[in-house]
C-alpha cells in the first residue's frame, strides 16, 4: 500500500514538473496553431509546453473610429519563443488606425508585444508564406506543414525539435538497406540472426515526411523507384 502511494506521489510530482504554461492572446490577436496543432481557442487561453514553442498568430481587430473604422486582418506570423514561466501574453503591434496598422505590418518584423509573467519575452518571427490565388491562407494547416518541413522542424509530444540529425540517420539506414543484397551475397556463409523489429514511431514518420518534402522532383522519383524495388 505504501509503495502504491509513493508511486502515485512520484507520478503526481512529475506531472507538476512538466505542467504547461498558459498562453493568453490579448484583444485583437487570434491564435491559429500551437506546435503544429490547431489551437483549442483562437481568442481564449491555450496551453504551452515548457521550452521552445511555435505559435501562429495574426492581428484581427477593429481599428479607427466612426466612419473611418474598419477591421484590419494581418497575414499570419509564425512566432517562436522559449517558455519557462507560467503565463505568456501576446499583444499585437501598436495600431489605433488602419493606416497605423498597415505601417506596422509593412516591415518584415512587426513589433508583437509578448510578455512572460509580466516581463518582456524575446522571440523570433517569420511571415507565413501564402499560396497563390484567391484566399491565400485558406489551407493554413498545409502552409504551416510546408513551412516546418522546409526548415526541418518536427514535434514530438508537443516538443519542438529539429529533424536533421534523426533524418540523416534514417537516410543512412535507407542507404544501408539499399545495398543489403550485395552485403548478403558477400556474407552467404555467415550465420543469420533474427532481430526483433521496433514498432513504428510517429516522430520517425514525420521526419521521413519532412525530408521527402525537402527533396527535389528527381530525388523523390528515385526514392519511389527504390521503394518499389523493395516490394
From TrEMBL:
Protein name, per record: DUF2057 family protein
Q: Which residues form the signal peptide?
A: 1-20
Question: What family name appears in the similarity comment?
Answer: Belongs to the UPF0319 family.
Task: Return the Pfam families for the record.
Answer: DUF2057 (PF09829)
InterPro entries to which the protein is assigned, alphabetical:
UPF0319
Which UniProt keywords are listed? Signal
Q: Which domain of life is it from?
A: Bacteria
The opening ranks of the lineage are: Bacteria, Pseudomonadati, Pseudomonadota, Gammaproteobacteria, Vibrionales
Q: Does the keyword Cell division apply?
A: no
